[in-house]
Amino acid sequence: MTILILGSGGREHTIAWKLAQSPKCEKLFVAPGNSGTAEVAENVNIKVTDFEAIRTLVQEQKIDMVVVGPEDPLVQGIHDFFLNDESLKDVAVIGPQRAAAELEGSKEFAKEFLFRHNIPTAAYQSFNSGNVEEGYAFLETLKPPYVLKADGLAAGKGVVILDDLNEAKAELKAMLIDAKFGAASTKVVIEEFLDGIELSCFVLTDGKNYKILPTAKDYKRIGEGDTGLNTGGMGAISPVPFADEEFMSKIKERIVIPTIKGFEKDNLPYKGFVFIGLIKVGNDPFVIEYNVRLGDPETEVVLPRLKNDLVEVFEAVANQTLDTIKIEIDERAATTVMLVSGGYPEAYEKGKEISGIGTIEDSIAFHAGAILKDGKTITSGGRVMAITSYGETYMEAIKKSYQNIEKLHFDKMNYRKDIGFDL
Ligand code: AMP
Ligand code: GLY
């Protein structure tokens, strides 16, 4: 099989690493890829949203399957683009069609879906520039903190949580009237605040059948003790120790099953990963958000624990025979620590040479914002590299990640030294 992965982060390096292990994978391309994917696949310099260039590549290389990493091409309808093109319609695309990708593309759409299918989530109302005053009035009925969410995709920055009512009103105005997040905040969802501990549940579905993959917890803030600005994710662990059998069965019955049935009932064509962001309030799970792809850096701990041949699993997704697959999970824990450029998530420098990668033992370096230049691996983004390790416990695994990080270096390298601290 010839396979193309779209994306260039740690998530895509991990998917490439996993697919490349399959005897069924004859040729693997990644567009645009990074220095890590270059080790296991051929990088092609094409943007993930350049559908015309992707079509040409798929035709020229006779690609059989396209695995979509990030949300943008899905929300822009790449799966539909393939289905509507005579020469591409038989290519398997792993990722939902546009109608279903709206679950990530619009917070309001996701909330309506959750309520329609009685899936536990925070109470909410949504507002636009025509009813800002009603938005202020709704905020007055809520207790702080106030949760405001730009409806559309805002590169992970569209959620603002504020303690002060006046600040919350000012934020609502900034989003709706001053277009703080551009078109993404023409609508704003205001939600009840849920107080609890977060985790993520990953589900793979073919639209009819589903498989629950390992849970993971990511660490979003830049600073130790979960302080400072939000990032794309600074580290992750899997499994989540507090997601015991009883809690997982609540997730399955109350959330996963109604979600998959909801896709069918609402005619949302879905062949791909569902990333369910959850919060545990007391002993009950609530949905915070849906993402229509795998998480990053959660992928760097979830896929290493999957024992199956991932090509076989994806074929079953494409053929709607996922019920015939038995998912096998490595009992060991996996952890990952993200190395980031100094300054990230604010301004940072790029082009720093990364040294020590060859000395890593008993961990895996998944490259993210790193590229090859003149035979050297240099930084090209804020999140640079995720160091994943296995262990009998997550503590043992995290120790290995930190031991290997000691051997890695680039100018102004930064990372969190407390991944797993809260467990
Ligand atoms: P999202 O982009 O929807 O994942 O939201 C970003 C972060 O905001 C989440 O990871 C949570 O930490 C927080 N958050 C979102 N919605 C709520 C809520 N209703 N109650 C408490 N925290 C929330
Ligand atoms: N780590 C969170 C995300 O991928 O959205």
Account of the protein in words:
With 423 residues, this protein is α+β, with helices and mostly antiparallel strands. Helices cover 29% and strands 27% of the residues. The chain contains 13 helices and 23 strands. It has helices at residues 10-20, 37-40, 51-61, 72-75, 78-83, 98-105, 107-116, 132-141, 165-176, 245-265, 299-302, 310-319, 394-405; strands spanning 2-7, 27-32, 42-43, 65-68, 92-94, 124-128, 146-150, 159-162, 187-191, 197-205, 210-212, 217-218, 221-223, 227-230, 235-238, 272-281, 284-291, 333-341, 364-367, 370-373, 376-379, 383-391, 413-414. Strands 12, 15, 18, 19, 22 and 23 form a 6-stranded antiparallel beta sheet that branches. The model has no long low-confidence stretch (mean pLDDT 96). Bound molecules: adenosine monophosphate (AMP) and glycine. Glycine binds at residues 218, 232-233, 291, 295-296, 298. Residues 122, 147, 159, 191, 193-194, 198, 277, 288-289 line the site of adenosine monophosphate.
Write the layout of secondary structure elements.
Elements: E1 2-7, H1 10-20, E2 27-32, H2 37-40, E3 42-43, H3 51-61, E4 65-68, H4 72-75, H5 78-83, E5 92-94, H6 98-105, H7 107-116, E6 124-128, H8 132-141, E7 146-150, E8 159-162, H9 165-176, E9 187-191, E10 197-205, E11 210-212, E12 217-218, E13 221-223, E14 227-230, E15 235-238, H10 245-265, E16 272-281, E17 284-291, H11 299-302, H12 310-319, E18 333-341, E19 364-367, E20 370-373, E21 376-379, E22 383-391, H13 394-405, E23 413-414
Helix pairs in contact: 6-7, 8-9
The chain binds adenosine monophosphate and glycine.
